[in-house]
Sequence to fold (253 residues):
Amino acid sequence: MNAVSTLAELSCEWSFTPLGDTALVIHVGDKIDEVTRQRVLAVQRVLAAEPVLGMIELVPAYTTVSLFYDPVLVIRAGAPGDQIVEWLSARISERLRDGLDGDAAEMVTASGRLIEIPVCYSGEFGPDLERVASQSGLSPGQVIDRHSQVEYLVHLIGFAPGFTYLGGLPAELETPRLTVPRRAVPAGSVGIAGQQTGVYPLATPGGWNLIGRTPLRLFRPEEDPPVLLQAGDRVVFRAITSDEFFTLEAEAS
Fold:
């Protein structure tokens, strides 16, 4: 995976969209690619290192960073009550201009952790494996090989606590979502939807094609942080047998 190597590539025109009355969405690109990913991470790092007054949380996504804030604290910091968005936008822009110009080289070379996730792709753990194979014109074994021989990138966490949206899925494995979502998807299920793959951390409804399951716990509320993966981490899947699955599951419980 190639990193963005120049300030020219990192630089961008950003824009802001209000998200209710407690958040601003910072737009840094219009397509999912490596350059946009690096811009998102750089913007997140700049604002995390030097937060604007009233900021509560930063949430990175494919092409945006959402900044959540406390409007009361923002007004106390000097923002006119009817111009909070304009006041915040000006200060965010100032932070980004200074931060991206000053620390671009360091930001774009930083990379997340590499985490291996064991997955059992057989039988009950991958009820949609045959469907993905049929869609791609491959055998189930070839689907497993291709899915487990790629390094993925965690673009964002969302939908449910710890749910990972992973980029890097081989093009031949792209598969439409299920027409009718399942009412309950088991925790640890590994799925494919369109150009993405991901792991369900909790038992939730879902419409992704399930091709396997991991015994790892991705959401661990008793720990800090409570989620195993973070945006910017890299993931590789390792195929395991059902016996290995149950052994690792017992060790994780």
The first strand starts at residue 15 and ends at 18. The chain is about 30% helix and 25% strand.
